[in-house]
């Protein structure tokens, strides 16, 4: 059932995924209940449900000190997602650096490569100083070496990528709302509010210069987000 639900999510059929999740009838153990709640929180974008899911195996969720924890790889993926949605990971680089160091120490190579990919994606969204940039390059090379050595697929986080393959206008809308910006604020000195409104609703195309300006205002990296012909940043499983 879990694989079926994840396939529906990877196919972006979120309504059917939610239906399948709600129709589960088998008796659940703690890990199955955690999976159900986490996916439900993901599909409904409900931080409280995500917190409830993680609390099943991490009762002291709000007082986690990573060096003292024994986290499974799936728990780490869920925790990263929760912390990112909560905003903790984007406030400074210290939390994500601690996560990467923990990943490097405690996980097998395949899980390490997958987690590095997500952690680096998050780190790239935070303002980095020179030391942070060095650390970013170090873990990037380490991840790439693991992918090359073991022939892992770069779509290992397909759940995340599928969730973030979306039209540009939808992506811009989501990011504007996340940053509590109005259409007036984001369009200022770039285009008229009316033009931006049409762009965000998918009724008007943008030239590359306007895209770069909008991404700069949203503190997003233009070259990174435009890779592979789809929009991929946030969210994980």
UniProtKB/TrEMBL annotation:
SMART domains: HTH_XRE (SM00530). Gene3D superfamilies: Tetratricopeptide repeat domain. InterPro entries: Cro/C1-type_HTH, Lambda_DNA-bd_dom_sf, TPR-like_helical_dom_sf. Residues 172-225 form the HTH cro/C1-type domain. One of its GO terms (molecular function) is DNA binding. It comes from Sharpea porci. It comes from the Bacteria. Pfam families: HTH_3. This is Helix-turn-helix transcriptional regulator. Coiled coil: none annotated.
């Amino acid at each position: 059932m879990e694989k079926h639900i994840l396939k529906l999510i990877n196919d972006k059929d979120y309504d059917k995924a939610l239906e399948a999740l709600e129709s589960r009838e088998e008796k659940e153990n703690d890990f199955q209940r955690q999976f159900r709640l986490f996916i439900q929180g993901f599909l409904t974008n409900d931080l409280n449900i995500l917190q409830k899911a993680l609390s099943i195996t991490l009762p002291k969720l709000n007082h986690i000190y990573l060096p003292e924890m024994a986290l499974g790889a799936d728990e780490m993926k869920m925790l990263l997602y929760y912390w990112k949605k909560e905003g903790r990971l984007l406030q400074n680089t210290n939390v994500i650096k601690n996560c990467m160091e923990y990943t490097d120490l405690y996980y097998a190579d395949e899980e390490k490569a997958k987690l590095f990919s997500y952690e680096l994606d998050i780190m790239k969204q935070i303002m980095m100083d020179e030391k942070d940039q060095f650390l970013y390059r170090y873990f990037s090379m380490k991840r790439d070496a693991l992918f090359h050595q073991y022939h892992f697929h770069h779509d290992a986080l397909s759940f995340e990528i599928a969730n973030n393959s979306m039209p540009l206008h939808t992506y811009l809308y989501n990011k504007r709302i996340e940053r509590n910006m109005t259409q007036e604020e984001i369009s200022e000195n770039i285009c008229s509010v009316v033009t931006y409104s049409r762009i965000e609703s998918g009724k008007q195309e943008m030239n590359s210069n306007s895209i770069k300006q909008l991404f700069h205002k949203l503190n997003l990296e233009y070259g990174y987000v435009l890779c592979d012909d789809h929009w991929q940043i946030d969210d994980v499983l």
